Amino acid sequence: MRIPMLAAALVATFSLTAHATPPMAAGGMYADAKGMTLYTFDKDPASGPSACSGGCAQAWPAAMADASDKPQGDWTLVSTADGANQWAYKGKRVYTFSKDKKPGDAMGDNFKDMWHTVKQ
């Protein structure tokens, strides 16, 4: 019983920082600090603003970085329209999906053949 509680505590306190890589969800997918699966969007340009706005942004919230977060390896930061920082993996902006209800869910994988889980 102690091991699952310890694992849950570690995941709950984990963030994308320069000191560690993001945790892996089931199936080798990357997840955010809450264990929610991360996705990329094929319509996002290689540089410039996100192609996901309005209703899209409500369904696919950006994976935002804290002010103390630093890029590491394939993980970089890109600016949002309001000047905040969003995580990017290999240059692609990263999002979560509102229909994923619990850690490890990947309901958005291959959604409309444009949304894909972030895998190593």
Automatic annotation (TrEMBL):
Any Pfam family the entry gives: Lipoprotein_15
One biological process term in Gene Ontology: alkane catabolic process
InterPro entries: Lipoprotein_repeat (IPR005297), UCP029720 (IPR014558)
Nucleus in keyword set: no
Segments traversing the membrane: none
Keywords carried by this UniProt record: Lipoprotein, Signal
Key word Signal present: yes
Signal peptide as annotated in the record: 1-20
Annotated protein name in UniProt: Lipoprotein
The organism's taxonomic lineage, starting at the top: Bacteria, Pseudomonadati, Pseudomonadota, Betaproteobacteria, Burkholderiales
